[in-house]
Every structure is written in C-alpha cells, then in structure tokens.
C-alpha cells in the first residue's frame, strides 16, 4: 500500500499542511522540535486512530484550536481510499471514502503501518507490560476481533480482582467466583492461543531478518512466556479446562494477595541472542538490532495477513545504526515498502542507497521540498 497524500489541520504544531507523498522513500530533515515526529505520528494515528506516544487524544489538537483533522489518500491493491479523522472535545470521528464509521474497529486496518522509534528499545529492555502492549498492538492491527476479546478479558479481570480484594476468604461466594473464572478462562485462552501463534510466526521472520542485519553473526530466538504453559494446537475446550485447573491451584494465593495470579495479563516474551538473554547480556547495539528485527518481522507478518506491505515509519533511528546495518535495512525493503524517515541531518543517512526518494525540510510546523 502507498500513502499518496496527507493533510493536517491544527494537528499538534501543524496549523495547515498539505503534502503529496508520492515517493517510495520520504525523508524529513530538520532540527529538533520542528514537527518531524508529529508528522510520522499523524500517519500512525491515521492507521490506528491513536498515537504511539500518548493515550490522550486531546494532546494531538493544536494548543490554540478546538479540533484537529487528518486527511489521507491511500492507494491499496483494490484502488484508492480516502481516510478522515477528526479529533475534538467530544471525541473522535472516522470516515472512509466520506462515510462515517460507527465503530473505530471498522476504520482501523484500512491503512497499515509499522513504526520504529528510539523508545522501541523498551520492547527488549523494559517491563513485561511494554512487551504485552507491543503484542496487542501488532495482533490487533491484523486481527480486529483480538482487541475486542482483550477488552472483555480486562473487564472480567477488574471485577474479579475487586472481588478478591474485598471479600474475606471465609465469606467467599464460590458460585460468584466460578462465574468469573469461567469468563476469565473463556477469553483468556483465546488471547493466549493468538499470542502463541503470533510469536511463533514472529520468531521465524525476526530470526531470519536479524541474521541478515548482523551478517549471520547473531542468532535471535523469540519465545512466548505465558503465566502457564499451553499447547496452542489443542482445542479451546482443552485449554479452557487447563486454565480452570490452574485457577483452582492458585486460589489460596489469590485470596492472600487480592489479585488474579494467572492469565494473559501476566504473559511475557523473551529474546535470546546466541542463547543468551538479550535483556540481561545484550549490548545496547544488540538490543537495538533485536527491536529493529522484531519491527521488520512485523512488516512481513502484516503482508502475510493482508496481502500487501504496510508503510514503514522510521523515527530518528537511522543515525543509531552503523552504515552496514542501515544498508541492510534499506535494501531489505527498497521498492517494496513505502518508507517515511525522520533525521536531524542528511549526514546521518546513507542517501546514496535510496531510490525514488523525496527529501523534505521541516521547520516550525512547515514542510518544504
Ligand atoms: N498539541 C500541540 N500543539 C502545538 N504544538 C505542539 C503540540 N504538541 C507538541 N507541540 C510542539 O511540537 C514540537 C515537537 O515536535 P516533534 O516532536 O515533531 O519534534 P521533532 O521535529 O521530531 O524533533 P526531534 O528531532 O527533537 O525529535 C514542539 O515544539 C512542541 O512544543
């Protein structure tokens, strides 16, 4: 897929921007705090209706304005699509080809993006919560039903935790807990199964991309670390029973601690380079390359799922890669994936390798070619 044009109205520091993005590689250059990330963020928001930097939509609206709008024209396999998002104090509205979508889930996935930014290092170095968010965003982008199941799971989890916290063990109502257990297990196994499948595929692509970027010097393995082991090839009913047994085993502990001890909200994933845990033993460069391999693997996973390549957004990351890794990155996707890159200067980018590139200068919320 290809983003042909984007316009912004009162989006962060862009009062009004109309930009045609008809090149395979679009490079945005400028000093700090001029609006480069804001522009990539706007493309990300047009795909997922929310920012990668903030959960507060209000922050996307220009400080002096009541509302913000993003308009884009994307070329897809089956033709052109126009996308509109409007953010105001009342919430957000989404339109595809001028038609308002009753549910945002009908809009998400029309445009697909993969963003790689400096903070993605946290996928490797950060807490399990960061890794779960990464998984959920990625699976959610290609399997719309997933986010709905996740929401249901979290609703039950909150109710169950409140009950565990407030009820004295002697006064427990076994029936009530049983109902929540069943709902938790029903949604929980669906999420775990999807995560397990996703990580298996992610592992295959990430390992081969990582080997390419490091000229075969590093072998990356990615593993799912659920709160209890499952065999994802089993029927959901078998996994449901396993989940229920697990809940009964940790019951006493749950009452003591007042919280749910097993389930996808306690999942994690692990990364090993040449058999050693990347989080503990990896150098900064190895950790960054691991995060990059995961993101690039996602590009292939999205293509497998939807039949075309997503856009790639690289925010301020090229300067952190040595020339060899930059070249590998560019050559892997050159000609196949439309790419948007930000950098503070051209010297940090191996421009000679780029084909069909447009170079834009960003200054104070304005973009010039
Ligand atoms: N809601 C908003 N309304 C107006 N301006 C905003 C809003 N949110 C952020 N800004 C401004 O946007 C600018 C930051 O832009 P951005 O994050 O895109 O910088 P950048 O060009 O990517 O810089 P760097 O190279 O440092 O990453 C800041 O000057 C900030 O004050």
Summarize the SSE layout with pairings:
Layout: E1 2-11, E2 14-20, E3 25-29, H1 36-48, E4 68-76, E5 79-88, E6 91-96, E7 99-100, E8 113-116, H2 122-125, H3 128-142, H4 144-166, H5 174-213, E9 220-225, H6 236-249, H7 251-257, E10 268-273, E11 276-277, H8 278-281, H9 284-306, E12 311-315, H10 323-333, E13 339-343, E14 357-363, E15 366-368
Parallel strand pairs: 3-13, 3-14, 8-12, 12-13
Antiparallel strand pairs: 1-2, 1-4, 4-5, 5-6, 6-7, 9-10, 10-11, 14-15
Helix pairs in contact: 3-4, 4-5, 5-6, 5-9
The structure holds adenosine-5'-triphosphate.
Residues 12-13, 30, 32-38, 59, 61-63, 316, 342, 344 line the site of adenosine-5'-triphosphate (ATP).
Notes on the structure:
The protein is of the alpha/beta class. It has two domains: 1-112 and 310-369, 3-Layer(aba) Sandwich (Rossmann fold), CATH 3.40.50.300; 120-308, RecF/RecN/SMC, N-terminal domain (Glutathione S-transferase Yfyf (Class Pi), Chain A, domain 2). Helices cover 42% and strands 24% of the residues. It has ten helices and 15 strands. It has helices at 36-48, 122-125, 128-142, 144-166, 174-213, 236-249, 251-257, 278-281, 284-306, 323-333; strands spanning 2-11, 14-20, 25-29, 68-76, 79-88, 91-96, 99-100, 113-116, 220-225, 268-273, 276-277, 311-315, 339-343, 357-363, 366-368. Strands 2-1-4-5-6-7 form a six-stranded antiparallel beta sheet, with helices on one face. The chain has a six-stranded mixed beta sheet with strand order 8-12-13-3-14-15, sandwiched between helices. The chain has a three-stranded antiparallel beta sheet with strand order 9-10-11. β4 and β5 (79-88) form a beta hairpin. The mean pLDDT is 92.
């Amino acid at each position: 897929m290809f983003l042909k044009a984007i316009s912004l109205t009162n989006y962060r520091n862009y009062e009004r921007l109309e930009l045609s993005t008809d090149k395979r590689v679009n490079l945005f250059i400028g000093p700090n705090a001029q609006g480069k990330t804001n522009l990539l963020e706007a493309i990300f928001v047009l795909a997922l209706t929310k920012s990668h930097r903030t959960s507060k939509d209000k922050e996307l609206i220009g400080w002096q304005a009541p509302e913000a709008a993003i308009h884009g024209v994307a070329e897809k396999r089956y033709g052109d699509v126009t996308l509109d998002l409007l953010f105001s104090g009342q919430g957000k509205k989404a339109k595809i080809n001028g038609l308002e979508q009753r549910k945002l889930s009908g809009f998400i996935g029309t445009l697909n993006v993969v963003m790689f930014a400096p903070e993605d290092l946290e996928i490797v170095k950060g807490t399990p919560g960061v890794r779960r968010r990464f998984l959920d965003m990625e699976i959610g982008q290609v399997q719309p039903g997933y986010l709905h199941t996740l929401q249901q799971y979290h609703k039950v989890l909150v109710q169950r935790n409140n009950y565990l916290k407030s009820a004295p063990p002697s006064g427990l109502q076994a029936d009530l807990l049983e109902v929540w257990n069943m709902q938790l297990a029903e949604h929980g196994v669906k999420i775990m199964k999807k995560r397990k499948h996703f990580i298996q595929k992610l592992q295959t692509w990430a390992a081969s991309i990582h080997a390419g970027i490091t000229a075969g010097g590093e072998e990356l393995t990615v593993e799912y670390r659920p709160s209890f082991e499952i065999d994802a090839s089993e029927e959901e009913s078998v996994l449901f029973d396993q989940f229920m047994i697990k809940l009964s085993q940790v019951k006493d502990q749950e009452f003591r601690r007042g919280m749910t001890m097993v389930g996808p909200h306690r999942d994690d994933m692990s990364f090993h380079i040449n058999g050693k845990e990347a989080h503990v033993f990896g150098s900064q460069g190895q950790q960054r390359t691991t995060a990059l391999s995961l993101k690039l693997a996602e590009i292939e996973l999205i293509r497998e799922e939807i039949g075309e390549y997503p856009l790639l957004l690289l925010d301020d990351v090229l300067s952190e890669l040595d020339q060899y890794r930059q070249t590998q990155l560019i050559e892997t996707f050159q000609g196949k994936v439309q790419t948007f890159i930000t950098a503070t200067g051209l010297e940090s980018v191996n421009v000679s390798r780029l084909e069909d590139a447009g170079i834009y200068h960003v200054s104070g919320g304005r973009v010039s070619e």
